[in-house]
Amino acid sequence: MTVNELMMRIEKQGLKANDDVPFVCSLGPPTVTWTTDDILQLRPDWTQEQAKEWLDVNCTVIQGTMCDSGWSCIEELLAADGM
Questions:
Q1: Which of 1, 4, 7, 54 has the fewest other C-beta atoms within 10 Å?
Q2: Domains in the chain, number
């Protein structure tokens, strides 16, 4: 996901770049928590157990993809700042 795509996604949620966006940058490692409710929003026909099982199986892939996206975002922002 590009920075522009991220900003468009944030704006679709009714937020602006300077608003309290739903993630945190900190000195420590960033954390994101996915819950069975998140999965059930996309698969409402699944049970809580199915959603938990799916998260258990796929959590490593999700973490790796999010890490890759984070690096891409950092690189694009630094490039935009001329660094």
A1: 4
A2: 1
